[in-house]
Amino acid sequence: MSTPIPWPVPEPELPADVHPALAAVARAAHRAYGEARRRHTRAELGTETAMGADGTPTMLVDRLVEDAVAEAARAAGANLLSEEAGFLDNGSAVTLVVDPVDGSANAAAGVPLSCIAAVVSVDGTATEALTCWFDTGRSWHAVAGRPTPYRTSGRTRLDGAALNVLRPRPAGRDAWHRLTDRAARIRILSTTCLEGALVAEGSIDAFADAGGDVHRIMDLAAAMVTVPAAGGAVIDAFGRPLEIDPDLTRRWSGIIAATPRLAEEIAAAVTAG
Amino acid sequence: MSTPIPWPVPEPELPADVHPALAAVARAAHRAYGEARRRHTRAELGTETAMGADGTPTMLVDRLVEDAVAEAARAAGANLLSEEAGFLDNGSAVTLVVDPVDGSANAAAGVPLSCIAAVVSVDGTATEALTCWFDTGRSWHAVAGRPTPYRTSGRTRLDGAALNVLRPRPAGRDAWHRLTDRAARIRILSTTCLEGALVAEGSIDAFADAGGDVHRIMDLAAAMVTVPAAGGAVIDAFGRPLEIDPDLTRRWSGIIAATPRLAEEIAAAVTAG
């Protein structure tokens, strides 16, 4: 029998200078996810309710949080580009690119590793990013072109790295092992955006999709602001440009790494086969 | 350049009826780990300082937290069986079996997934267990023979399960894929004791060491009390009895599962090769 997740969802801890629209969607997401946990069992939260604008199934937890995010974006006067709803035009020069629930399967099951990740985009350029971990309220904030408190580990070599990955898929098993066999530590946390934050702050050396083309732009957008500011790099394993684009059928194999050199070394390992 | 982990370590949130010696070691461990984070960089915390009584290297973070745990056990008048120090006889009928820092690599690096796990053992029988997640203060407590609030997911089949594992090792790759290929979700969190708590509360269906003989008794002892009380099972993949034993060279391939049937099905998959 499926049970509710008993743990509370605290308010996000936000820095004073965060963009008001980012703060608004983060607070709305935390409240909505907390409410969803109180009202629904794990099985209910994980029920697929529809097909999202990105072509993947939407779970109930995704829909409940995204509805709250969409309302908060509208109230803040910003456009929204989001996984399930696609592009919502509220007539603004500012678009929020948001993954309302990164790590949806974790969020539905009660594995305490999920977050909201959002960026401010102006004319297709990400200018500011916020990632908030639902279970703790811990947040990571970065503004393009400004110093941040985050410093990556600085690692340049894959051999001996602490590497986070997605699970291996049958078709990509060789690339997965080419990559993971060289790492000192392997983790699969199933939450790309939190894993990007861990790269930015130096807790892990890198995160990689080993060629599975799993990532949508909202999975990588916050890292694209936060990680370079901390000394790292975000690239696609196959060299495709990472672009904020309302076409949510586009996919990338994201690599988020402590240094540009490590990112390139990981890409070389993924594509060597 | 390695940096300190900036996040605080809160006090553990403990139920009123927890054994005072368990509460004492949990509080001491949280304080010591918080202090270790403030004083040392990630690289320092991860430096191997000695060889533990269990035959694996001791990191600085392990030593600092275990020293505090040993002092708390002594002050509480309990014996201690711990990974690094081995058995400390304080002349008591009660022995605390403790993993002072489960997920040591996470704890040293700043990956926010590590905990203290401890049981009260009387004449080799575990009677009470406490697991406290350092980064949140969240705790799981169970007393043998008493009802607990935890309910596992109740899953009985491996096919489609949410399964946590250790990373694959070259020698055990076949068993690892036999197991993981059948699961719907795979995670590697690198903290067996927290993963056991997630099985107990129904957030994941199972955790397994796919035949690597990685587990010491303190990796499994808390789950051995908490998980059966919640409907699940803890077994060794090769059918060896799980025993609290001061001989810390003994190893098991622990399986922590939502039901006895799921545990047996995982064991069969691991040993089928």
TrEMBL record, chains A, B:
InterPro entries linked: Inositol_monophosphatase-like
Domain of life according to the entry: Bacteria
Family annotation (SUPFAM superfamilies): Carbohydrate phosphatase
Pfam family, one: Inositol_P
Family matches, as PANTHER family: INOSITOL MONOPHOSPHATASE, INOSITOL-1-MONOPHOSPHATASE-RELATED
Protein name stated in the entry: Inositol monophosphatase family protein
Species in which this protein is naturally found: Marinactinospora rubrisoli
Lineage: Bacteria, Bacillati, Actinomycetota, Actinomycetes, Streptosporangiales
